[in-house]
Design goal:
The complex is a heterodimer of chains A (52) and B (224). Chain A has a domain of 34 residues. Chain A is 96% helix and 0% strand. The mean pLDDT of chain A is 88. Chain B is an all-alpha fold and 224 residues long. In chain B, α3 packs antiparallel against α7. The two termini of chain B are 30 Å apart. The mean pLDDT of chain B is 89. Classes of the chains: A mainly alpha (52), B mainly alpha (224). Chains A and B meet through α1 of A and α2, α3 and α7 of B.
Amino acid sequence: MKNLFFLVTAYSLLWIILFGYVFALLRKQQVLFKEFNRLKTVLKKQVREATD
Amino acid sequence: MRNTKNLIAIMSFLLILLSITAVFFYAPVEKTMGLVQKIFYFHVASAGTGFLAFAVVFVSSVLFLWKKKEVFDYWAYCAAEIGVLFTSLVLVTGPLWAKPIWNAYWTWDPRLTTTLILWLIYVGYLLLRKMITSPEKAARISAVYGIIGFVDVPIVYLSTRLWRTIHPGYVMGLGGENSGLDPRMFQVLILCLAAFTFLFFTLLLIRIDIEKMTGSIDHFKQNM
């Protein structure tokens, strides 16, 4: 029974760390994608204003 | 390219599900250690994937110094980060397996010590990159560091043969069929290794995308 505690703890930590990293990466990717699109819109606006 | 990335991600997810099922429903329970031995499958798979990641760092660093292409620096940096992640998993699962078997979470055994050194080497690699402000200089210095740091990987692998140790010997490569591992255990181990290898490449591709996007945004901001 005591061994089961170590098994459950090891597997829990393993997946928490792994999926924590995966979700952190996906979140960062999403934030960067939004920022990239925002900058693109700003740049387009600046170009339009300069040509008008 | 996007389809390939999705395919690798789906493959890794399916292989992980399959390997967890195999660990608990296909692999036999070890007679002496009991259920806790099931930590072994992902512990060894994490170690193998960590080695693979550091091999990618090594090869990419050599290619960066040779070809001077930024893309190899991205590969090296991202692989180092993921390598540290998998080595951290080894260092977390190992002591939890050791406690009920050796009655201690940690001993300064050659295999354990060299693995800890390996982890510290690549944490140092990541810190070094953060500390150097010039991107070109950071890439060049960390490439040299990545090549030298890889020396510890064969030392970790050979440590059970080079020194007296309480850690189990080879189960992969040099161990082969003489490792004393049940064939079903060996099959499950290979499955876990395959799952983590696919996961490594999934994470690597996402991480490289992030690095490239960060570079583009910085470039954008500088030119605005």
